[in-house]
Automatic annotation (TrEMBL):
Residues 22-104 form the Lipoyl-binding domain. This is Glycine cleavage system H protein. The glycine cleavage system catalyzes the degradation of glycine. The H protein shuttles the methylamine group of glycine from the P protein to the T protein. InterPro entries: 2-oxoA_DH_lipoyl-BS, Biotin_lipoyl, GCV_H, GCV_H/Fam206, GCV_H_sub, Single_hybrid_motif. Its cofactor is (R)-lipoate. Pfam families: GCV_H. The lineage of its organism: Bacteria, Pseudomonadati, Bacteroidota, Cytophagia, Cytophagales. Keywords: Lipoyl. SUPFAM superfamilies: Single hybrid motif. NCBIfam families: gcvH, PRK01202.1. Belongs to the GcvH family. The modification N6-lipoyllysine is found at K63. The keyword Lipoprotein does not apply.
Amino acid sequence: MNIPDGLKYTKDHEWIKIEGNKAIVGITDFAQSELGDIVYVDITTVGQELSEQDVFGTVEAVKTVSDLYMPVAGKVLEVNPILDGSPEKVNEDPYGEGWMVKVELKGAPENLLSAAEYKSLIGK
């Protein structure tokens, strides 16, 4: 199970990479493995201001649809254009080409987990 140290995590299995006042968000390797083969990513929140824990989109796997939760308060700046034609990138490379959104942060992030805390949460 890949859980990079340089990222922060949520209890809902999103990861976030904070770079100044912007961040990149995706779902964890654990989340994509639990979902199975991802066939569609639906994110229509570009330009919207969202609060922490707001749903910013959904991910559809062969057997289920799962909400995506915003790990921080902020404005959705961009959706990963690769996912439109290649949603499987989330399975193949969840921390790289499978990222989901870029966000402009509003305030300091709270309630994020370190890699060690996330590993403990998922029992790894």
